[in-house]
Fold this sequence. Notes:
There is one protein chain. The protein is mainly alpha-helical. It contains five helices and no strands. It has helices spanning 2-51, 59-71, 79-88, 94-102, 105-138. Helix 1 runs antiparallel to helix 5.
Amino acid sequence: MPDTAESEIMSTHRANLRAMLLRTVGGIVAYGCLTAFICLISVQTYRWFREGEWTRIGIADGLRAVMVNCCVNEGDTGHLAGFVHWLDTPTDWFGWHKLLEVIPASIGLFALSMLGNFAFIYGGDRINQRDDAKKKIAA
């Protein structure tokens, strides 16, 4: 019987670690994307006040800028370089490309923030459920 109890403790420990990891990653994504969303809207508003014209930044523009500045160099090959090339000149999936160009990056960042917040809250709820179950068993 000790093996069963030990196995159950390890299983509970792994589940708590997964919930904490989900909560941590969700929080990072949620608040990172929310910060990027606020910065993007602030830059667009500043430009609008200064120049009198709204600067449209689509998801494709944001992805291209992030990939070129962090991950892909000129002349690179591979999946990310192919993705950046597709963002510049698509050869297929034209509807998906058009969708990425039309949807504003601010809406995409806000949606990612909401998704991350969902994971953050869900992870916290899972931890609380397990703690409540432990208290009921102990009582």
